[in-house]
Amino acid sequence: MDKTHEKYAKKARTDLRKKDYQVADEALIKKILTHGSHGTLASTYNHQPFITPLIYIYDDKEHSVYFHGARTGRLRANLHFNPNIAFNVLEFGNILAHKEASEFNVAYNSVTIFGTARLIDDEKKAIKILNQLLKKYAPHLEMGEDYKAIQANEIKITAVYQIKIQDWTCKQQIETSEYQESFEYTPTKISKTNKQ
User: Fold this and answer.
1) pLDDT band (50, 70, 90) for residue 2
2) Which residues neighbour 150 within 8 Å (Cβ) at sequence distance 6 or greater?
């Protein structure tokens, strides 16, 4: 079994096991990255892995993903010492029911990018990225009418990052006739609680 594990561990990071799920269509990959609601960033420090959920924007011209965070903290420290990252965007679809329990599945689109994250030092560019984030997530609101323009003190405490994409992979599972039923997954609602 060790040789099997070694075989897979040594594969290229873009080499997927299930080739029939793999998508090479760049237009679809870019569409998923453009319209995704959020992503999950994997970083490491001293062999310890960490996962951070993030909102982001994708820039096709720069072949990059941008996100923001705090100027100090775990993620900032991790990326300072090791800028190599993986970032995943997932579109979760219907549950796909099958007569065989082991064949149950879920419809999804998933893009994983690999690259390095760097801090944006140019204040004007950082503000531009933050404004693009606001436009993506609150397109119905107008700066100057619904909220104030980004202030200097806000930039001082905000880190804006660029992930220059080196590689990406895309997987897709769609509903086919082999599934007897598909239905939306209804998550349990989390009740609001006061922070302690």
Assistant:
1) confident
2) 127, 130, 131
Contact (CB, 8 A) for 178 and 98: yes
pLDDT, tens only, 11-55: 777 777 767 667 788 999 999 999 999 999 999 999 999 999 999
- How many angstroms separate the CA atoms of 125 and 70, rounded? 17
First to last CA, the chain: 47
Q: d(Cα 44, Cα 124) in Å, to the nearest integer?
A: 29
- Exposed/middle/buried for residue 66 (C-beta within 10 Å: 0-12, 13-18, 19+): buried
Domains of the chain: 21-119+157-183 (2.30.110.10)
Element (H, E) at 29: helix 26-35
pLDDT top residue among 59 and 97: 59
Q: 124: helix, coil or strand?
A: helix
Q: How far is CA 83 from CA 64, 79, 97, 120, 157, in A?
A: 14, 4, 41, 13, 20
Q: Is 19 exposed, middle or buried (0-12, 13-18, 19+ CB in 10 A)?
A: exposed
19 DSSP 8-state letter? G
